[in-house]
């Protein structure tokens, strides 16, 4: 027997499953769920999961021998070989985000009957009861075995063993009683076995044993009928033969029946009638013979049959993974129902088999067979079929429904919504809704995206098993609105919602009493906001360096009073408005102050003195401050001088320049002195002559000293 998962693993799986239920569900499945393997053979077991955690890991707990492991991103498979346990239950498990889930497969080992033996039969006396015994040796599993005893083409007895206990091989004995008639003489008794293993069918038979029947004692006679039990198609015909062992020459016989008799034939100890247009579903004609004044009767049983008019498999809905569904098959207008077998299959696997030995009534009936399935991912695309078999003592009528394809869908995860929690009236930010783990393919996901009860336009993209819808969110009116996303694949729907606040924040108003003002004038700067929704705005008035003044939440405006100075010219003021409700939004309005003042001249713009060298390139520059910008004129000796123009310096450029700056608000003056440095040629010449004379004197003196020394 297969060993259970160790207690520690079981406990861990139980506790972590409870602890992690809120972190996202996942499923574990095994394929095949039920496997039948020849004793000593092998089978692949595939464990798969819907877990999206990249770190998910799985395995197989079993006492069987595991080899040849294979695995993918969400599955792992093991080959189990040399399977000699008659029943085992390996357990697939996966760990996902710290949670463990288990699922169990059922493996049954089988052994086809080693031998089917029919016990020898003695020579039999007509009309006496005898046992027919069949032994089926070393077969497993016995619960899947059917044993049938036949006389010629007629079924004498069928036995199944659904209630058999034990999983290993066993020897089975089947016994039935027969009372031989004359017509049985020379017939062959056979024993047949069938081992039905979910799509695989193993049959075997015994050797035939011939019946040898001998007559009754002197003075008695018997009446027999052939066939004793007849199956006739509804509206068809059959010959019924009545015979006797009576040796009296005047013996006479006949057939009592409500059926139509035609074409009588007879011999010295028999009489036969053809019964036609048989429309009674069950009838019992009686053969009789009168022998020496004694009458004896024997009854035949005639059943009319009708093969199923139609076999209809009810259409199946699109199915959600892991949910239970009924599969319904209708078999229409069939008789006799007691001989009917209905089998529902998924692909080559038998889901359910039903027989109707206890059905009451002899006429045709409509039969409904229902079984429940819980679809897994591996079932997607599989075909369900319904098969009927009408077994009529040697004749076998089969029929099947059209196949119905299984469509299995799954959305193991809830969708995710991504958008801003705050949206301004008129804005159109993007909203994204995505869901992972879509099965069978992400392209089958259908989205519904709405905002404030109004459907949004969106586009859908897919990547792997993830589908994403993206669209613009907007609303013409402020207030709290709900963003909803619903994802549907097949019959499965998942939804997510997010509350979004749509707000109105108008541009703030910035007012300056005189945006162009004279220096030393009073100026008032006002910052205010029109009505917002939700109400309550925080105001700030600032310049480029700092916050100048802030408002309280209910204060409608803030003001700054200042006396305009030259330094305020070009100063920029900004009015900022922020919602008091905590919405992360801000609006700004800016204005610049212009201060008007007369000219002012200083050394930085107009130096009082320039020192230039003759022959160099220089630019005469004199600038003045003022608003508006003053015009500057410079003159030397009553002649205007070009300002800001580069020129070559001459000696005559030296002197005093008179500069004047003026604008609409006044004027300012300044004298600028220019000195020109140059070389004096006369002085240079005299210097050179003097230097030469000194050198000549030194030379003569030296010569005279040298000469006197040598003498």
From TrEMBL:
The keyword Ligase does not apply. It comes from the Eukaryota. Residues 599-675 form the Ig-like domain. The chain crosses the membrane at residues 678-706. InterPro entries: ICAM1_3_5_D2, ICAM_N, ICAM_VCAM, ICAM_VCAM_N, Ig-like_dom, Ig-like_dom_sf, Ig-like_fold, Ig_sub. Its main location: membrane. It is found in: Membrane. This is Ig-like domain-containing protein. It comes from Chrysemys picta bellii. The lineage of its organism: Eukaryota, Metazoa, Chordata, Craniata, Vertebrata.
